[in-house]
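Ticket opened by: R.M.
Priority: normal
Category: complex prediction / small molecule

The reporter submitted a protein together with manganese (II) ion and asked that the result be attached to this ticket for the collaborator who will pick it up next week. Submitted input follows.
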Amino acid sequence: MNADAHRPPYLRIATEEAWAPPEAIALYRDHLARRDLDDVGFNSLMGYFLNSPHPQPRAVVERLQDAAERRMADMDAAGIDHQVLALTSPGTQVLPADEAVALAKTANARLGEICQARPERFSGLGTVSFTDAATDVAELRRAVGEHGLKGLILNDHVRGDHIDHPRFAPLLRELEDLDVPLYLHPGTPPNTMISPYREAGLDGAILGFGASAGLHLLRIITSGVFDRHPRLRLVVGHLGEALPFWLHRIDHMHAKQVASGRYEAIKPLAQRPSEYFRSHIWLTTSGMPWEPAILFTREVTGPDRVMYAMDYPYQFEADEVAAQDALPISDAEKADFFEHTARRVFNLTF
Ligand code: 1DF
Ligand code: MN
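Result attached by the on-call engineer:
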């Protein structure tokens, strides 16, 4: 596809695009060689990407580490004007605390430099160690205030915990105070969940990612995170990790469970679960360039809540952009979908 042949009246901003500094890849390689990380999904998936003899995963790992010529050539080939970059899954979230703290610092400084060097092409999300709250709050402040990053990436579970755990409340409060969004990105399910997925070969992006991230998203809602953090903005990939399709049933069953008093963890909420998708949550189309799913999701959550993402380099199919250019929505809605919603949610000012 020659993207320049048809220059639409909007920029195409891709909002869930993976990146890794060589330091992250080196850390992962060391742990894989020593087999000393107790995370089944990491050892399986990163073991595949980093130790496979096949050219395809090797090319993904090379592309992850490039934030210059190769990436921009790929963007040009696909018609992508701007990428919102974030540290690839699993980021810091499988690492020992000292390594996680150091990697967050390195990744934020480097990503800030990348974005400042080419502000029209790249924006970035920050990362933290998800260990000590005070350390993470300070790093998030640095990422946003000093390095100019536009939010925080959360690569699903944190060493088996979820972001609704009270120990993360100070970090969520800081996101509110800084007025930047949290991006819930998937990863392989935690050890407590992965066995039946892995046994069937389904622990990766085919289902395990979405199953685990969907659970994480629903936990955020039902545990009352948005009631405790009313200014928090959450962005979720893969069209909401299947939850939009479930919303009627989730509302119905949630009300029943509240009434039953059966679970300590299920309490009344300020809104119905589905309503948080219209007040606090934005969705991206990463990995889901599929018209029926995109139109359904827009119908359920509102057209101003769904924006474009590619999922480069994991799902880099240059022709997918054309399918979304052809969506049967108005020109103004398409401009929101590809450009203006991302500008608003991430406060992009380039
Ligand atoms: C894959 C996909 C791997 C995504 C990822 O991180 C990842 C994959 C290791 O296809 O195996 O982040 N993704 O975002 O869809
Ligand atoms: Mn992704």
